[in-house]
Task: structure prediction
Amino acid sequence: MKKVGIRFKRTGKLSYYIIDNDEIKISDSLVCDTEKGEEIGVVAKIMEIEDEEELQKVKRFATQQDFDNQKEMDEKAKEALKFCKEQAKKLELDMKVLTAEYTLDGTKLTIYFVSEDRVDFRELVKIIASKYRARIELRQIGPRDEVREYPTLGMCGKEVCCRTYISNFDPVTIKMAKEQGLQINMSKLSGACGKLMCCLRYEEELYKENLKKLPKVGEIVRVKGEKERGKVTSVDILGLTVKVRFGIDDEDEERYETYPVDKIKWTPKQPKKEEKQEDIDENNENENIIE
Result:
């Protein structure tokens, strides 16, 4: 008996089940009961079962018949999506219909859409249900979920991370950009979804750790081997080096030198209390944290 983590979508969250088969392998396809109905998922993780856990059992290994059924359901979902778009337009609903999907057994049809406001789609559901004899769910999603629904290139030239591997959207803040020494320009820091780029989180822990070892720009420091004091003009956070200006008391003889941080001595200033508005972009308060 094994515990398996199954992914039902390319970048979906893992759902955990148990299976009475010790020969299960990563990437095996299994049929499971989910909150939507029967779905085919792919094994992404295999673990030993803990005594306290109570999990659903996997129904079966996916067969060729299951894959054929899934293909048929995908075709029906495309037809339903087209019909839903037409009806939403007729009803003049302020919504953008994105995708539709059927469960493997065809008992439930889920349609995903985006809208800036709440939408009264009860009439739309009635129309769709009368044509497609199944349980209908219209689910409103956010801008980041919208981007992962179709191929999109990021600023790096590669396909956006939320479509390729990110399954959980963690908060991303303006403070992260500040700590990484980036210019606060929202057009350059925003991804295809209009929110702050997820990749700002990737090196956040390393930047935080290195910033603890570095003096701040503007601090007066002493350097091993130098008689006079200098003023920090810039820091290389990842390289752990500090650029120092000497001749701060005599501008005619000023010079700039770069040193590794282990040659620098300074007395850290006491941190000030963080202001509540520190992480808020004055042009758009909702841009600073991705929810």
